[in-house]
Write the C-alpha cells for this entry.
Amino acid sequence: MARLREATDFHDPRGTLAYAHVLLRAGDVDRAQRAVRGVLGMQETREGDAHCGNFRWLLEDAGVNDLNGVEFMLDELIPLLREYREALGDGLCEEMRRAIALGLEEIERLDVHPSYTNIALSDIANSVLGGELLGEARWVERGAERLDEWLAFTDASGAPHEFNSPTYLGVDILRAAAVAEHARDRGVAFRARVAEERLWQHVAAHWHPGLAQLGGAHSREYFDGWSGAGGLLKLLIWRLLGSVELRRETPYARRSREEGHVPVALATLHCPDYVQTMLREKAYPFVARETADAARGIDITTHMTADYVLGTASRSYAVGSPPEPWPAFTSMHLYFRRDGPPGYGALYSRYAIDDSVPGEGGHRGDDHYDVGQHVAAQHGNVAIVAYGLTPRLRASHSCRLSVRLLGFGEGDEAWVGERRVDAWPAPVAAGETVAIATGDIHITLVPLAPSDMGHGAPIELTREGGVVSLDIYNYKGQAKSFWEHRSQAGPFYKGNVRNAFAIEVAGRSDYPDVDAWRRRAAQLRVSDAVDDQYRRTITCTTPDGAVSMTYSLWDMSLIERRADGEVIAPPMSRAGAASGDGPQLVVSREASTELGRLTVESDASAKWVFADDDARRYVVVRPSDAAAAMRLRTPDTVIGCDAFGFRRIDVDERAGTVSVETAGETGAVRVRSSHGLRVIVNGDEAAAERV
C-alpha cells in the first residue's frame, strides 16, 4: 500500500474497488461490502439506455461519459468475486454477478477496435474470466476469439499498436497476466502468457537499464511519461527487479502519478528470465526498431548509449478504423544521464496552441498534450522532426513547436551560433545552430524556417528555472482563426504549415569540452526544399552520415526516408546491441530468419525470435494455429517439426533442455543435439516416440 500525499476533489471507483481488496484481506467485511455496493450503484442499468451496463467514471459524473468505465470496473469486480465469494455473502455476490453479466453485454456492443490495445486486452480478460465466473461459455469463446484477433492484428505490423506507453503497457501486461494465471482453459491461458511475453519483449527493447527509463517515442503518455516520473509500468518493473531508481522522486513533475498499487501487488507476472536480463543490462550502443502500424506507416526507433536514449516515431499516433488522431503522444524523446538527483534529464517535443505549458490544470496543462501532427526520420543519434497543424476552428493567439529540456542546471551551457546564452530569451535565426551541454551529453538543435501565419513569428530560446525551451512559432499575436486550416480542405487550403528541427546527440565522453562539441555542431548541415507538388524534403548531414525525409505538406504523409542514401525500410521488430552481441530480438515473416548462431526456417507467418549466443539461449514463438513445417538450427542443436502450430520452443543449451509448449496437440518434435538435451513438452518429460 502507498499513502497518497494529496487528496483529490473527486471520487474514483477504481480506487474504491482496490480498497475493497485491502479491507477484505484485513477482515473488514462490512466496510468492503459497502464499498462494492457503492460502485455497483454507479452502473447504468436502465433498459434502452445507449450504454446500459457501463459505469460512471467518477462519482461526480452525471452519467456514463468515459466508455472504458465498464472495462476498468469489471477488471476489479471479477477478481473480487472470484477470490472473496464466501466473505462477500450470497446477496452481494448475486448483485455482482448481475453487474458483470450486464457489463459483458455492453463490452460486446462496444466491441472496441484491436488497435486500442489496453482496452482490447481488458475486453479479452473480462470476457474470458467473467464468462468462466458466470459459467457462460459464449463469453469465454468470445474472449478467446478476440485474443486470437489481437495477436493476428499485432503480428500484421510487429509491435503492439499502442506502442511503448509508460502507462498503458502496464495495463496491457496486467490484463494478459490475469488471463494467463486464472483462465481455466489451458489453451487460452497459454496464448495469454505468450501475449504477455511479447509485451515484455516490447518493453525490454526500449528500456534503458542505467537510466531506469522507457526510451521514446511514446504512443500515449501523461506527465509521468515525458518527465520520467514513476508510473504504472515502472511499478510493475519494480516488482520484478526491486531497483530503487524506479521509485525515485522527480523534480520535473509537480506531483506523483503512481497508481495501481493494489492490482500490481496482487498480480502474478510471467516475465521470462531472458527478458528480465534485458531489463537489467544492455550492451551499447543498443538499437530497437519496430513497426506499430504497417498500414499507416508508423514505426519507432530507439537509439541507446550508456549516457542517453533518443527515440522518435515516424508519424503521429491514431487509433481505430478509420484512424482517429489522439494527442497524448510524444514524437521525439530523449533521456540522458546527469549527476545529482534525480540522476537524469529529459528533452521532448510538443506542438502547443495558446502557450499551453505543464502546470496548468487538466490534460492541456499537466500532461502537456501534443496537438499537432508530425513526421520524423532517425538514423542513430541524429533525427529530423517536422510538424503541421491539425484542423482547427477556434481562434488562437499562438501556434508553436516547443522542444523542451528538463534539468538544465549549474555548469550547463547553451550557445546560439557563436553566442553563449547568458540572457533569456535569446533570439535564434532559422538554420542557426543551438548547442547545449547538459548532464553527461551534448545536444545540437537546428530550427528550420517556419511558415509565418501572421507577421514576424519568432524563434527563441527561453529558460524558466531548470527548463529550457526552443520555441519555433508559426503564429504569435492577437487571437484569430485561420480559415486555411479550419478543415485543411476547401478554397483557401494550400498545404500545411512548415515547422521542423534537426537534432544530434553525443556523450560528453566523446567531446569532453563545449568548444569541441561546438566545432562538431558547426559541421552539421541541414537542407530544406519544397517542390510544386507540396513535397518537402529535409536532409541533415553530419561528418558521420546523413538522414533525409520527404513528406507531403498536403496531408502530412511520409513519402520516403533515407539513411546514408539507403531507403529506410523498417522491420516488423528488431532490437539488440549494434555489435550483434548479447540478447537479440526479431519479429519476422521471412522464410529463413538468422539471428546470431540461430537459424529459423518456416513459412511466411509471423515468428518471434530471441537469441543470446553468449548464454546459448534461444526462444521461438509462432503464434498461429495454421500448421507449417519449422526447423531451428544452431551449431550444436537441430529441432524439426512437420506440423508446427501455435507453439513456443525454448532452447537452453547450457541447462541442457528444450522446452516445447503448445496450445493444442503437439505432434512429433525431432531433436538432434551434441549435448544430449532433455526435451520437455507442456511441462512433462517427452516420451520416446515424441522425440
Q: What stands out?
A: The radius of gyration is 26 Å. The CA atoms of residues 44 and 52 lie 5 Å apart. The longest strand covers residues 467-480. Confidence is low (pLDDT under 50) at residues 1-5.
